[in-house]
Design brief:
The protein contains six helices and four strands; from the N terminus they run H-H-E-E-H-H-H-H-E-E. A two-stranded antiparallel ribbon has the order 1-2. It has a two-stranded antiparallel ribbon with strand order 3-4. The N terminus is likely disordered.
């Protein structure tokens, strides 16, 4: 790794937009960004309905406002997190400090795991509340497609955030850690083997050589 930890030896290179967009990490972030928009957008636009004899709208997920609030909150925060880490990915090659690079990688690992967990909880929560929803609470199946879209893309988001964990991918943009001492030992210095006459075939051992 050019003798650097977390790719520090490559710091300072010019930013290549095309290479950046083609990176698996970037594509996963963009997918997660789109999925989060679908989740909170579906709930905000069509996630609140009312019966024919009511004027007040209720959450489509079993009239449980907490379910809608959870989906919207997680979706919006995931949307912002994707933008933040996309910016970090673009800036990462310019970071020369090993400590700063380590902090960036560790934070990405923690955030990716955290959001995968939140999306898993959201998927289970929304699915449970949708199954408990009564038909009379959604006249003419109004908002049904939006509810199913929110559930579906919550499920997809679990995997996009899970695979964004840089500890599972040694590719770009985060290069894996390499110990400089280990790298030096790997190169090493060549040592000449002892001469053949140093080995005594009769005693089956080595004799002391005078240099």
């Amino acid at each position: 790794m050019d003798g650097g930890a977390f790719g520090a030896g490559k710091a300072g290179g010019a930013f290549d937009p095309q290479a950046f967009i083609r990176q698996p990490q970037t594509l996963l972030r963009l997918l997660s960004w789109v999925f989060s928009i679908v989740v909170f957008g579906s709930i905000v636009n069509e996630g609140y309905v009312n019966r024919a004899d009511e004027t007040q709208e209720h959450c489509i997920f079993n009239r449980n406002r907490n379910a809608c609030n959870y989906g919207i909150t997680v979706g919006v925060l995931a949307f912002l997190s994707c933008l933040l880490y996309l910016a970090l990915d673009a800036y990462f090659p310019q970071i020369s400090s090993v400590k700063d690079r380590k902090k960036a990688v560790l934070s990405d690992i923690g955030v990716s795991a955290f959001w995968a967990f939140l999306w898993f909880v959201g998927f289970c929560f929304l699915t449970n509340q949708w199954q408990a929803t009564k038909e009379e609470d959604i006249p003419m199946n109004e908002g049904g497609d939006a509810a199913r879209a929110a559930i579906t893309f919550s499920f997809f988001s679990i995997f996009t955030w899970d695979y964004m964990d840089p500890s599972q991918d040694s590719g770009m943009p985060y290069a894996p850690y390499t110990n400089e001492e280990d790298a030096t030992d790997g190169v090493g210095t060549y040592q000449q083997p002892p001469p053949a006459e140093a080995f005594d075939t009769e005693t089956q051992g080595y004799q002391t050589q005078n240099y």
